[in-house]
Amino acid sequence: MNKLNKPVFKDYSAFKEMSSNRRLKHYSVLNGQDAFILNAYKEYIKNKGFLNVNSCGTLSGSIAEALKYYYKEPVKCISIIDEIRAANANSLCSMCGSMHSGTLDHVLPKESYPEFAVFTKNLVPACKCNTFKSTTISNAAGHRMLHPYFDNVLCERLIRAEFTNLGQTPTIDVKIIIDPRSSDFNNVKYHLDNVVIKNDIKGYLSQQWESFYLYPELIVRGLNKSLFTYDDALNLLIRELSLLDEKHKGKNNWNSVFVAGLIHPDVIEWILYELHLGDRETSGRLK
User: Between the CA of residue 180 and those of 131, 189, 202, what are the distances in Å?
Assistant: First the structure.
């Protein structure tokens, strides 16, 4: 769940080179499809990555299968597909914000939109949420998923953890924090419900809280018994959040979501009370 720079790559030129190469397996299928693909790529950019199925026309089954084949087995002129995957193997997931990546996601699913199977602007670094995400990218009301290359709202902090019933096993939820009147709000909600929640962000936050409760400094450096005032704790959490944002190059990674949830008056007051109970060491670790 992160804004990314679009790949700098001449997709149409690469497709033209691939489709005109007589030595390639699917030359007879793709040759002559240049105009269709050029139009489809232009429409994708014009609509910032979201189109209705078959809005650019319908591909035959053989052409669709050829494009999906070259996604799995990129030829030299589209080897950038493997480069994008390798370059982002250790980065966070741009779709859900988890701390994992290693694969690529077709924002418009290749089964429904095969014309974009090898289009670099449709390929984003992702994690296993790629397998959980439905082929449905929007709902009847027009609310849709966010696109890491086109939706600038992803530069903002969109979500935070919400902790209530504080204690060893609190109630944990994920809260959208942009203005409900924002034109992006419904898309953020759709993306949260259909991508982020499905990849079990709540399970991750629960695991983080378990570590945090037992030993706060495992999650937030400096959060120990040396803190006495609300402002000291608040400033420490704000600094930690800023460092996490910078480390992960975005504000909606799951570690930042967790710490952002700690920056709430009720939670900070609970943390200070909990740190100074008699059953904790000077470091804050539970005895």
Answer: 30, 10, 22
